[in-house]
Design a protein that fits this description.
Transferase(Phosphotransferase), domain 1, 487 residues, protein serine/threonine/tyrosine kinase activity, protein tyrosine kinase activity, membrane, Phosphorylase Kinase, domain 1, alpha+beta, 15 helices, 10 strands, three-stranded antiparallel β-sheet, serine/threonine-protein kinase, five-stranded antiparallel β-sheet
């Protein structure tokens, strides 16, 4: 069996049968052509049987290297014939041409389209197509969904921040409440008392001590005297108060502070000054003298003397106007009653006695006032300026009745405690026959047991004016007609 080409390469010195010549070689040895020498024939055979691992390009590279003299053929190998070299070069050229031709063919098969020119018409067309492709309902749903998602996330973030703040400031809130309580109980009364003492010293130095005149009235803790002239004001009323303890000192000092700090208003009694008399009663006690505007009488005395319907309704309007002013300054009177409404010579009303008056932020829940005029929530300690609306409702009952007689429901009460218990249980004054229906409805609304259902004074005032215009017009047509619209 003849050896394989691999074994032939492994034994270059061995002799093997010659391979069949290619057609080109046979053609070359046609008759008439010179016969190649044995050495040339052997070289041609080796050139026509290259190594299987060598490619045409590597063969070309090897040929170039041989031409440049970089590498020498190994010993014992015969050089390739020019015919075989020419054949290999031709094949390599065809291969390279085929490789180069494929990208060209691919590129030629691609359809090249020039980009459109961006013109105003093209832009308008694209925009029109985009607008026509929109759906109003889908767009609205998408926008609403995005808004809803954003609002929900914002709300959750806000709620989380609030919870974080509440957790961080819960202790601080308790401390703040304690500080407010200290301000209400200690600091505010102390500062008010210092203000009273300093102002009294200034008034004594400027205007001297006032001279006490005729006694005008007497209360639980003081007496009211007439003073002819003091500090350029005449006539004056001098309220002499002897505080029995520290609490009453604080209340008196706060009354002075509020009366001095409030702007002047035609429905509030003016305070001209104050003097502290350290030798009052022969030096046995200290009295505070408050010099105020002198008025003709109080509403209690006026009702006893008798007032016309028009005058009484005008007094009710004046009281509402004064209470509204106090509320606008952040104050709650807490003791609206007949004797705290003073009348001038024209029977126009002014509110006085701000001893129980307090800012809403400083109300500590203390029980103050006259029992019949006290709203039920005053006994719970949680109340606001609606307690003045309740008190006005009771006051309006007296004004409409035209007398100072107690309502029958309260006349049977033997003590203050009994009266307070009746108020807490919801007892209210009875309806009198002389009451107009609209007046009675206004009273009931003002003394409603639920503070949130009581009307605001800004609503009460026009209602009163409407009632006054209607009743006064009707009364002028029928002089004997009273408040009762059925008579």
């Amino acid at each position: 069996m003849p050896p394989s080409p691999q074994s032939r390469r492994l034994h270059p010195g061995a002799t093997y049968p010659a391979r069949p010549e290619p057609r080109d070689a046979q053609t070359a040895h046609s008759p008439g052509a010179p016969s190649p020498s044995p050495a040339a024939r052997g070289a041609g055979e080796r050139a026509l049987c290259p190594s299987p691992a060598r490619t045409p390009l590597s063969h070309m590279q090897g040929t170039n290297e041989q031409q440049e003299g970089v590498a020498e053929p190994p010993a014992g190998r015969r050089p390739a014939s020019p015919l075989h070299a020419q054949h290999s070069l031709t094949r390599s050229r065809h291969t390279c041409a085929g490789i180069r031709g494929r990208p060209v063919a691919i590129i030629q098969r691609i359809t090249w389209v020039s980009p459109p020119t961006i013109t105003l018409e093209w832009k308008r067309k694209v925009a029109q197509e985009a607008i026509e492709s929109l759906s109003a309902s889908k767009l609205a749903k998408s926008i609403c969904s995005q808004f809803r998602t954003r609002l929900n996330s914002s709300h959750e973030a806000f709620a989380a921040s609030l919870r974080q703040l509440e957790a961080g400031h819960s202790g601080r809130l308790e401390k703040t409440e304690d500080l407010w309580l200290k301000v209400r109980k200690d600091h505010a009364p102390r500062l008010a008392r210092l203000s009273l003492e300093s102002r009294s010293l200034q008034d004594v130095l400027l205007h001297r001590k006032p001279k006490l005149g005729q006694e005008l009235g007497r209360g639980q803790y003081g007496v009211v005297y007439l003073c002819d002239n003091w500090g350029g004001h005449f006539p004056c009323a001098l309220k002499s108060v002897v505080p029995p303890d520290e609490k009453h000192w604080n209340d008196l000092a706060l009354e002075f502070h509020y009366m001095r700090s409030l702007p002047k208003h035609e429905r509030l009694v003016d305070l001209h000054g104050s003097v502290i008399d350290y030798n009052y009663g022969g030096g046995s006690s200290i009295a505070v003298l408050l010099i105020m505007e002198r008025l003709h009488r109080d509403l209690y005395t006026g009702l006893k003397a008798g007032l016309t319907l028009e005058t009484r309704l005008q007094i009710a309007l004046d009281v509402v106007e004064g209470i509204r002013f106090l509320h606008s300054q952040g104050l709650v009177h807490r003791d609206i009653k007949l004797k705290n409404v003073l009348l001038d010579k024209q029977n126009r009303a002014k509110i006085t006695d701000l001893g129980f008056c307090k800012p809403e932020a400083m109300m500590s829940g203390s029980i103050v006032g006259t029992p019949i005029h006290m709203a039920p929530e005053l006994f719970t300690g949680k109340y606001d300026n609606s307690v003045d609306v309740y008190a006005f409702g009771i006051l309006f009952w007296y004004i409409c009745s035209g007398s100072v007689k107690l309502p029958e429901a309260f006349e049977r009460c033997a003590s203050k405690d009994h009266l307070w218990n009746n108020v807490r249980r919801g007892t209210r004054p009875e309806r009198l026959p002389v009451f107009d229906e609209e007046c009675w409805q206004l009273m009931e609304a003002c003394w409603d047991g639920d503070p949130s259902k009581r009307p605001l004074l800004g609503i009460v005032q026009p209602m009163l004016r409407s009632i006054m215009d209607r009743l006064c017009k009707s009364n002028s047509e029928q002089p004997n007609r009273g408040l009762d619209d059925s008579t």
